[in-house]
Amino acid sequence: MRRAIRTAAIIGGGIGGLAAAIGLRRAGWRVTVFERQEAIPATGTALGIWPAALQALDTLGVGAAVRERAEPQQAGEFRRPDGSRIASIDVERLERRTGDRVFLLSRPGLLGLLHSAASDCDLRFGTPVGSVVPLRAEFDLVVAADGVFSRVREEVFGVRARYAGSTAWRGYLDNLPTGTFTEVWGAGAKFGVTPMEGGRTNWYASAGAPEGQFHPGAELGVLRGMFGTWPAPVATVLAALTEQRILRHDIYVTPHLPSYVSGNVVLLGDAAHAMTPDLGRGACEAVIDAVTLTNCLIKDQNLMAYDAKRRRTTQRLARMAGAAAWLTHVRRGVPVRDALLKASLRAGPPA
């Protein structure tokens, strides 16, 4: 766009939406955020903040606060259900390459920092958006950051999220500190444990399952049935869990789109490229999307410059996440699967 964009409507007050609000406001725009929830959540599980996302947060003025509040990943390894090690993560290698480690911070913790930094925007929580048509007419730019089940994506692009074939459990435990990332891979299922700020332990599990096959009030029994014979730290977490502390949800992904832009509407975060959580990059890519979008507009590039910079990159990461999910769900040929995991770790993760 050659004319200056002065007003922006952001649909979604989550991580990507608030990051975009901060970036655009710092660039001098008038920003209005529409969020259907009444407030940011008070509880939630941990996110891995990778170096590239930390650098993006630095440009938004919140990177230092994230590093101060979050737990740095000190070590990591992948194990088998018998306790034997598949491979270790070279944390120092990533730090040498990027200057940063992965930091673990709860979703509410990151949202709180972003919300504070966006306080000079017009934040309209408890304000769902129906059709995007009125906003397209009123604002110069409409940023759709409304998540994996994006109404804007469906209305403007005609694309719905699809079930990825797997389900997930997650939660956290108080007063159970750990400094180590551990992920245990069995045949068709995995269980992970990570640090979390405040001396808490974040945990998650996933397995292939039919869509919507939940067990309300009985998920703890399901977890113990699947993972009950696995060693610590899985056994430690399962022994401490209560039914009320378990979150369960199916995993959905966004089909690859031909563009993230339509007129003055742009998609970012899960609305554009929801991926399986196996790389732990969803929140990171939403922040990077927001900063990239802001930079493209500051430089007076059109919105297609944002699409060119982010679509292929995020779709490649989505394919990588899908491949990792496929490896997780392998039931036969597990030794070959483990060898592939080792090889991927030697190649090193994207920063």
Task: Please explain how this structure is put together.
The chain has a 7-stranded mixed β-sheet with strand order 6-5-11-12-13-10-14, sandwiched between helices. Strands 8-2-1-9-16-15 form a 6-stranded mixed β-sheet, sandwiched between helices. The longest helix has 26 residues, at 303-328. The chain has 351 residues and is α/β, with parallel strands linked by helices. It has 13 helices and 16 strands. It has a domain at 7-71 and 107-162 and 253-326: FAD/NAD(P)-binding domain. α1 (15-26) runs parallel beside α11 (282-298). It is globular.
Report Rg.
20 Å
Poorly predicted segments: none
Please state roughly what percent of the residues sit in beta strands, choosing from under 5%, 5-15%, 15-25%, 25-35%, 35-45% or over 45%.
15-25%
CATH class of the domain at 7-71 and 107-162 and 253-326: Alpha Beta
Strand arrangement across the biggest beta sheet: 6-5-11-12-13-10-14
Q: Which second-level CATH architecture of the domain at 7-71 and 107-162 and 253-326 applies?
A: 3-Layer(bba) Sandwich
Q: What is the CATH third-level topology name of the domain at 7-71 and 107-162 and 253-326?
A: FAD/NAD(P)-binding domain
Organism: Paractinoplanes rishiriensis
Pfam families: FAD_binding_3
Protein name: FAD-dependent oxidoreductase
Keywords: FAD, Flavoprotein, Oxidoreductase
Can I get a quick summary?
This protein has 351 residues and is of the alpha/beta class.
Per-chain topology:
Blueprint (H helix, E strand, L loop, with lengths): L6 E5 L3 H12 L3 E6 L10 E4 L1 H9 L3 H7 L1 E2 L2 E5 L5 E5 L1 H8 L4 E4 H11 L4 E4 L7 H6 L2 E4 L6 H7 L4 E12 L6 E6 L3 E8 L3 E9 L10 H9 L6 H7 L6 E7 L7 E2 L2 E3 L2 H4 L8 H17 L4 H26 L5 H14 L4
Parallel strand pairs: 1-2, 1-9, 2-8, 5-11, 9-16
Antiparallel strand pairs: 3-7, 4-7, 5-6, 10-13, 10-14, 11-12, 12-13, 15-16
Helix pairs in contact: 1-5, 1-11, 2-3, 2-11, 11-12
